[in-house]
Amino acid sequence: PLVKDTTDEIARRYAGGEDFGSLIAIFGSEAGADAGAELMFHPESENWAEAFRANVAALEKPGDITRPFVTNLGIHIVCYISDVPSGVHQLTEEEAEALKQAALEAKQMEMLSGYLAQWKGEYEIETHPELLR
C-alpha cells in the first residue's frame, strides 16, 4: 500500500509507451543489485525466490510486465524483454577472456595440488601457522 501510487504510475506510463528501462532508471532503488539489470530466467531454475519465479514464469511474451510483487529483497516489477535464442552462443571478447582466465587458474591449482602432494611424499614438511600474518 505504501508504494501503490508509484507502482501504478510505472504501469500506467509503461502502458502509455514509455521505455521500461527508462522507468526503472527513474523509479528503481534496489540496494543489492543494479536496478534495471537484465537477467536470464528459466522457470525450472532454483536460484530464484518462489515469488520471483512464479511471477516471472507467468509472463507470456516479450513486452509483458508483472504486477508488483514482494520478495525478501524488496518490491519488484519485471519486464519480459526477449527470449535467448537457441543454438551456439558467440562469445564476446570479455567472455572468452574470462573463460580463458578461469581455465588457466584451474589448471594452475591442479598443478600446484599435484606438486604439493609430490613434495609431501618426498619431504618432511613442518607448518607454522602462527608465523603467517
Number of strands: 2
What would the principal axes of the Cα set say about the shape? Answer: elongated
Low-confidence stretches: none
Q: How would a textbook summarize the main sheet?
A: 2 strands, antiparallel
Note the run of SSEs as H and E: HHHEEH
Q: What share of the residues lie within helices? A: 40-55%
The assembly state of the depicted protein chains is single chain
Structural class: mainly alpha
* Proportion of strand residues: under 5%
Q: How confident is the prediction overall: mean pLDDT?
A: 86
Strand order of the largest sheet: 1-2
Distance between the amino and carboxyl termini: 52 Å
Number of helices: 4
Q: Provide the gyration radius in Å.
A: 24 Å
Characterise the protein shown here.
The chain is mainly α and 133 residues long. Helices cover 44% and strands 5% of the residues. A two-stranded antiparallel sheet has the order 1-2. β1 (69-71) and β2 (74-76) form a beta hairpin. α1 packs antiparallel against α2 (20-27). It is elongated and about 75 Å long. It starts with a helix and ends in an 11-residue tail after the last helix.
Which tags fit this structure?
mainly alpha, about 130 residues
SSE topology:
Elements: H1 4-15, H2 20-27, H3 50-57, E1 69-71, E2 74-76, H4 93-122
Antiparallel strand pairs: 1-2
Helix pairs in contact: 1-2
Brief characterization of the structure:
The protein has 133 residues and is mainly α. It is 44% helix and 5% strand. Strands 1-2 form a two-stranded antiparallel ribbon.
